[in-house]
Design a protein that fits this description.
By secondary structure, this protein is an all-alpha fold. It contains 11 helices and no strands. Helix 3 runs antiparallel to helix 8, helix 5 packs across helix 6 and helix 7 runs antiparallel to helix 8. The longest helix is centred in the first third of the chain and has 34 residues. The radius of gyration is 23 Å and the shape is globular. It starts with a helix and ends with a helix.
């Protein structure tokens, strides 16, 4: 009994330390956003202020970077979802040794360093007139984010009953109708989840983007360029807004799911 209680205490202590390890950098960053000191710091406290939040909304380049990040993320979602679904559909229906080879090829972008993806995308598309910029950054990000979406669709399709398609086809439905009325509703939760993952992967991406975006910039690229000269606490204020939005979105999602199950 005492051994079991000691084990539980050790496990609880480990969990507390683990979550503190994860949350400590965020808590320090959030505290720095309310410090009047002109550099991000919590050790040199000069008083509580909301000045950095006001400064954030007057920083034109940060605002443009956020807009560019949303535009690129929207483009990535538009490419990654249908391409990932198509790849998953092909792999789920193929049989034989070629399936493993094709799977390895389609998953390989996830294992490729981001700078290699960015440079290879730039080299590949330059001959057809697509130079460095937001469009090329979208294509570069989609080259590996599509693989994440494909894996999510594969996991969902593993639980799909193909006899539903066969029954619908036997009753006279065409393939387009079967996909629209049977397959897509089954995959719809994964479509939403894959869209969320694609958005987050795109919005925070730096390594691939910085080599493909050229003179344009997204929010991570702009923050990365400012690292050489020292960051303003306004960046910490921006981080606070993103943390609040992320936590709020997660809470809203859980509440909606519980209401659906309760209904």
């Amino acid at each position: 009994m005492n051994a079991g209680r000691a084990s539980r205490t050790l496990l609880d202590a480990y969990l507390v330390l683990f979550f503190l390890y994860l949350a400590a950098p965020l808590l320090v960053m959030m505290a720095a956003a309310f410090n009047a000191y002109p550099q991000p710091s919590v050790t040199r406290w000069q008083g509580f202020t909301l000045h950095w939040f006001a400064a954030l909304f007057t920083d034109a380049r940060l605002g443009t970077g956020v807009l560019h990040s949303f535009l690129v993320a929207a483009g990535v979602i538009a490419i990654a979802i249908p391409c990932g679904l198509a790849g998953a559909a092909i792999l789920s229906r193929l049989e034989g040794k070629a399936t493993n080879l094709l799977y390895a090829v389609m998953v390989s972008p996830i294992l490729t360093p981001g700078l290699i993806l960015g440079l290879s995308t730039l080299i590949f598309w330059s001959p057809v007139g697509i130079g460095a910029g937001l469009t090329l950054a979208t294509l570069a990000q989609a080259s590996f984010i599509t693989s994440y979406c494909m894996l999510m669709f594969l996991a969902r399709l593993a639980r799909y009953d193909p006899t539903l398609d066969e029954a619908a086809l036997d009753l006279g439905a065409n393939p387009a109708f079967v996909f629209r009325r049977i397959t897509l509703p089954f995959l719809w939760p994964t479509v939403l989840a894959a869209g969320g993952i694609a958005f987050l992967q795109s919005f925070e991406n730096y390594n691939t983007t910085v080599f493909a975006i050229g003179g344009d910039y997204t929010l991570p690229a702009e923050i990365g360029s400012r690292m050489r000269f020292g960051l303003s606490p306004a960046i910490a204020a921006l981080g606070v807004l993103f943390v609040v939005a992320t936590v709020g979105g997660a809470v809203a999602w859980v509440v909606l799911r519980r209401r659906e199950r309760g209904g």
